[in-house]
Design a protein that fits this description.
With 338 residues, this protein is α+β, with helices and mostly antiparallel strands. 58% of the residues lie in helices and 13% in strands.
């Protein structure tokens, strides 16, 4: 800020006018009270006015520098010079404005990342839905051909039904993830019997496991419980079992073990499949991630949804490989310490 810009400030010009009138009044009073020393009044008034405007000019210049600093940060400036700020009311104001500016910039960066993530998610969702829709369209064309054998027609209809079920599950899972992300889901906090949880989760996969000749083994005392939401926990465990079922060859087995101690209730799911590739482990719970041993029907959101549900219930979900072979998923619901 230059002197000319400072003097153009209406507030400063009004102040100068008032100070000049006061200086004239003080000078007149000084000569009336002491004619021999009256000349000291205008000199003293001028000195105080000069000191006042020197300090005021410095303050306005600091404010202008602060304004330029904020403008620089808002337009993408990366370096933030905190060491330039000292104690004092203006410095406190500088610090608070700087904090607000940094916070706003961080929020803008977060929104930018969210937009990128949303765009990528929409692309993934579009791909996941388009693939079965393309297959359904091809099946429709084959079904419309004249002279199609009844056995072949029935096979094509079963395949189409399977694809429709896949789309329905995908949309349902995506809606559940969206509700959890938005915080619109209110999970219950009630005693959940683990035996009932396993029974209901396994019931959703009874038919496909039977068709694959797979066995479900349950090892639990039957008295294990934890505090949470039964319906959403069934969704989480069913997604884990579905993942294991798809990775386990025909004639294999899936084992569920449950235990409880004073700290947590643990549910371990194992399978007799090839296990999880070490390269897949860090990414296994990411949305739309498909591991090397994933089946054609996998879309890569079941495990992500399962972890979201477990985490919302004061729990953890980890994946690994059992020393004897096969994948191993460990769920722990921790008990609240009162």
């Amino acid at each position: 800020m230059g002197i000319e810009q400072y003097l153009r400030n209406p507030e400063i010009r009004r102040g100068l006018l008032i100070q000049a009138l006061l200086a004239a009044l003080v000078t007149a009073v000084g000569f009336v009270l002491s004619p021999s020393h009256g000349w000291l009044a205008p000199g003293t008034a001028a000195l105080f006015i000069a000191l006042y405007h020197i300090l005021t000019y410095r303050r306005y210049r600091r404010i202008a520098e602060l304004s330029q600093e904020i403008d620089r940060i808002l337009h993408g400036g990366e370096d933030i010079r905190l060491d330039a700020y000292a104690e004092g009311e203006l410095a406190i104001l500088q610090s608070e404005i700087l904090k607000l500016t940094v916070q706003l910039r961080e929020q803008a960066d977060a929104l930018r990342r969210d937009k990128i993530y949303l765009a990528d998610s929409i692309a993934d969702i579009s791909h996941q839905i388009r693939t079965p829709l393309t297959s359904i369209n091809l099946l429709r064309e084959r079904l419309s051909r004249p002279g199609l054998a009844e056995e072949q027609r029935a096979s094509l209809l079963r395949e189409m039904e399977s694809l429709l079920v896949r789309i329905d599950w995908l949309i349902s899972a995506l809606l559940k993830i969206a509700r959890l992300d938005a915080g619109t889901v209110s999970l219950q906090s009630q005693p959940v019997p683990v035996a009932e949880l396993i029974r209901r989760a396994a019931a959703t996969l009874a038919v496909p496991m039977d068709l694959r000749g797979q066995q479900l083994q349950v090892c639990a005392s039957g008295g294990e419980t934890f505090t949470g939401d039964l319906s959403w926990s069934v969704e989480a465990l069913a997604n884990i079992l579905k993942n294991c079922m798809e990775a386990t060859p025909e004639g294999g087995w899936i084992r569920i073990e449950a235990a409880e101690n004073p700290l947590y209730t643990e549910i371990v799911v194992r399978d007799s499949g090839p296990g999880i590739d070490p390269e897949d482990l860090p990414h296994l719970f990411k949305r739309f991630y498909k591991g090397k041993h994933s089946g054609d029907q996998s879309v890569g959101i079941g495990l992500a949804l399962a972890r979201m549900i477990v985490t919302r219930q004061n729990g953890t979900l980890q994946a690994g490989n059992h020393p004897e072979g096969g994948a191993k998923f460990t769920i722990r619901f921790y008990k609240s310490i009162v």
